[in-house]
């Protein structure tokens, strides 16, 4: 019981939260196993080209990202459980049709519908996590809610690969079982409902939402800015081996996950603005130092510091969301913000590649530092305005 007391969520709501986590986790597990393992390995047998498989993923992911505002509104109206059941059933229809009677037009159309059906689950899940958080632990609650979903993607990749290599005839059964569990878990969450708004957003609340938009775009823009160039930069310019790179990435990821529980207390207990701005400043400095092509020990140190900065930034950002998003509209607004985040994720790699071509290998890191600097200036101004009482 003492261990449960340390969690950022209220104990009485943990069963419902766990069911929602498993619903979303199994859905991410299925998508990873289906798109990144099953379809590439089975495309020839199904008569589907790899380019068509890639297009199906683009259609699915873009539809999900662009529908999150609508999906969040839907969760707010009919509940997380109903949307979970819908996403499971649509997924079963899409996968069974693709596997049993493959057709390019059916694949694209069904992936589009599946993307729409799941679009509200993540904003609904995060909104519920924020509502059941222990007062003073909201930032950590949302940060850990996000981190707890990530391993399911890797599990889908790993377990899907094991099945496709060793039990290929059973791979489709694995996918169907996972989606069946998604549907059943959705049924257990039918009682989870978001508070319905009693009135529309006023101008003051709308201005609070607009304050969040730049970071909503920039955080995933920064995370994806280096996707196209990081391997080439580290392997050919820093002269790292693959295992050295994996060690550095593992170090940073471990620090982020473990550090969020400790460093996440800063925004919850000491206020949002100093941890938010300090972490952005630290990230800017780290990007500038990586651009100087450091030695491997120095690079490891920068990865460690980057993990600490990111473990501070994420809870600070989440605490800012909880403070500024009106509770009654939170799920729908969260979904709309995720559309903005999706645009950041989509444009980040393209900008990173452009900066590499324009400014050389260090260009993307200089660009990352500039983005962090602009956010510091923006939120410094916002903090000054808040102190003057012009905003909430």
UniProtKB/TrEMBL annotation:
<dbReference type="GO" id="GO:0022857">
    <property type="term" value="F:transmembrane transporter activity"/>
</dbReference>
<feature type="transmembrane region" description="Helical">
    <location>
        <begin position="170"/>
        <end position="188"/>
    </location>
</feature>
<feature type="transmembrane region" description="Helical">
    <location>
        <begin position="271"/>
        <end position="290"/>
    </location>
</feature>
<feature type="transmembrane region" description="Helical">
    <location>
        <begin position="47"/>
        <end position="66"/>
    </location>
</feature>
<keyword id="KW-0472">Membrane</keyword>
<dbReference type="InterPro" id="IPR011701">
    <property type="entry name" value="MFS"/>
</dbReference>
<keyword id="KW-0812">Transmembrane</keyword>
<keyword id="KW-1133">Transmembrane helix</keyword>
<dbReference type="InterPro" id="IPR036259">
    <property type="entry name" value="MFS_trans_sf"/>
</dbReference>
<protein>
    <submittedName>
        <fullName>Putative glycolipid permease LtaA</fullName>
    </submittedName>
</protein>
<feature type="transmembrane region" description="Helical">
    <location>
        <begin position="365"/>
        <end position="386"/>
    </location>
</feature>
<dbReference type="Pfam" id="PF07690">
    <property type="entry name" value="MFS_1"/>
</dbReference>
<feature type="transmembrane region" description="Helical">
    <location>
        <begin position="21"/>
        <end position="41"/>
    </location>
</feature>
<feature type="domain" description="Major facilitator superfamily (MFS) profile">
    <location>
        <begin position="175"/>
        <end position="392"/>
    </location>
</feature>
<dbReference type="InterPro" id="IPR020846">
    <property type="entry name" value="MFS_dom"/>
</dbReference>
<feature type="transmembrane region" description="Helical">
    <location>
        <begin position="243"/>
        <end position="264"/>
    </location>
</feature>
<feature type="transmembrane region" description="Helical">
    <location>
        <begin position="147"/>
        <end position="164"/>
    </location>
</feature>
<feature type="transmembrane region" description="Helical">
    <location>
        <begin position="296"/>
        <end position="320"/>
    </location>
</feature>
<feature type="transmembrane region" description="Helical">
    <location>
        <begin position="332"/>
        <end position="359"/>
    </location>
</feature>
<feature type="transmembrane region" description="Helical">
    <location>
        <begin position="78"/>
        <end position="99"/>
    </location>
</feature>
<feature type="transmembrane region" description="Helical">
    <location>
        <begin position="209"/>
        <end position="231"/>
    </location>
</feature>
<feature type="transmembrane region" description="Helical">
    <location>
        <begin position="105"/>
        <end position="126"/>
    </location>
</feature>
């Amino acid at each position: 019981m003492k261990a449960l007391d340390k969690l950022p969520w209220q104990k009485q709501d943990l069963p419902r939260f766990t069911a929602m986590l498993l619903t979303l986790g199994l859905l991410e597990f299925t998508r990873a196993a289906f798109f990144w393992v099953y379809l590439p390995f089975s495309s020839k047998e199904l008569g589907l080209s790899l380019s068509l498989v890639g297009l199906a993923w683009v259609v699915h992911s873009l539809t999900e990202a662009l529908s999150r505002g609508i999906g969040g509104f839907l969760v707010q109206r009919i509940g997380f459980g109903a949307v979970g059941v819908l996403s499971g059933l649509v997924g079963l229809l899409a996968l069974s049709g693709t596997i049993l009677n493959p057709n390019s037009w059916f694949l694209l159309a069904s992936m589009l519908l599946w993307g729409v059906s799941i679009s509200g689950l993540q904003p609904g899940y995060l909104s519920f996590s924020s509502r059941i958080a222990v007062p003073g632990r909201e930032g950590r609650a949302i940060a850990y809610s996000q981190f707890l979903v990530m391993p399911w993607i890797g599990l889908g990749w790993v377990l899907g690969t094991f099945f496709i290599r060793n039990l290929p005839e059973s791979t489709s059964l694995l996918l169907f079982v996972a989606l069946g569990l998604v549907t059943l878990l959705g049924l257990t969450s039918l009682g989870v409902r978001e508070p319905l708004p009693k009135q529309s957003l006023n101008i003051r609340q709308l201005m609070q939402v607009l304050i969040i938009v730049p970071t909503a775009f920039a955080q995933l823009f920064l995370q994806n800015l280096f996707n196209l160039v990081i391997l080439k930069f580290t392997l050919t310019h820093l002269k790292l081996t693959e295992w050295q790179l994996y060690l550095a990435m593992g170090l940073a990821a471990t620090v982020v996950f473990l550090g969020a529980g400790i460093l996440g207390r800063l925004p919850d207990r000491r206020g949002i603005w100093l941890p938010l701005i300090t972490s952005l400043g630290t990230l800017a400095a780290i990007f500038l130092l990586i651009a100087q092509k450091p030695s491997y020990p120095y690079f490891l140190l920068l990865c460690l510091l980057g993990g600490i900065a990111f473990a501070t930034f994420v809870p600070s950002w989440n605490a800012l969301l909880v403070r500024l998003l009106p509770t009654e509209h939170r799920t729908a607004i969260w979904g709309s913000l995720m559309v903005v985040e999706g645009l950041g994720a989509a444009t980040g790699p393209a900008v990173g590649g452009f900066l590499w071509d324009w400014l050389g290998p260090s260009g993307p890191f200089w660009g990352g530092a500039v983005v962090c600097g602009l956010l510091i200036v923006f939120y410094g101004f916002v903090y000054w305005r808040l102190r003057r009482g012009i905003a909430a």
